[in-house]
Amino acid sequence: MSKLIRNQLTGEWIVVAPRRGRRPIHYGGVEGCPFCPGNERATPPAKLIYVRSDDGSIHRFRDEDDARRSDWLVRVFDNLYPIFSTTYEGVYGYHEVLVETPKHEDKPWSISIDQQALAIKAALERIDILKLDPNIRYVLLFKNYGRSAGASIEHMHMQIAASPIIPPRVELELSSYRGECPVCMLIEESSLINRYDDILAICPKASSKPYEVMVTSIEHKPDIPRTESYIEALARILVDVMRRLRSILGEFEFNYWLHYGLTRDHHWHIEILPKTSIWAGLELGGWIYVNAIPPSEAAENLRKALS
Ligand SMILES: [Zn+2]
Ligand SMILES: [Zn+2]
Ligand SMILES: [Zn+2]
Hints:
By secondary structure, the protein is α+β, with helices and mostly antiparallel strands.
């Protein structure tokens, strides 16, 4: 049984979730990978899968009862070791895993743009469904990539955590909107990496780590428009940023998350934090971050990276 506790000193939330300690770890190839096609029985039934039909169109299915389909392109299911759950006693919510590709060998920098777009589309679709639950206050989409980033499984996946509380970080961002949008200001003041249509990637002026990247819209928008072309543009920028980071950092590990707006003031963005430094006493104890590479220099290196 899990439990939600608030730290009265800082306002931070702690979920005590003993089941999380029992997560299996899988690195080292296709053999025994619970997220590879054919091994669906190692995970709960899919709540959503995308399947391509003979004419090329994408269809949605879910696993019914005991059946498991293995011809999927993207697969979403309940996390076996949930932080939030509707089915066991504990903190109410949803905690889903989204396998982004059937190909075990795909990496964030080598995945095709079409495939990445399908994964993003499925993630947004799940967010929209989970948001309909009146007990859910926020749905956080995030990705942990690599052991040092907290991923227990190597195969590319994202996680969706629908929680009964608004994450304090999101609340803090909301409270920073005073007449002018801080994300719009950040775009003005930060160094550009690349842009495509309405979406750009920047190294934020106040990057807390070397090579921190923010992906967001040029126009002020509280959320990502749910159109094929917009999602395709987002996938294009995301994969491009990953390729640039990869060419500078090698096979890097990272976390990213999506913040969408709860009000019209908020401006959606994805924050990408490569594991380029270790947060220590000053960062953890003071929220004062030491960054050895100026964001303007990081952006310049990233701009030049693939040329
Ligand atoms: Zn796999
Ligand atoms: Zn804005
Ligand atoms: Zn944010």
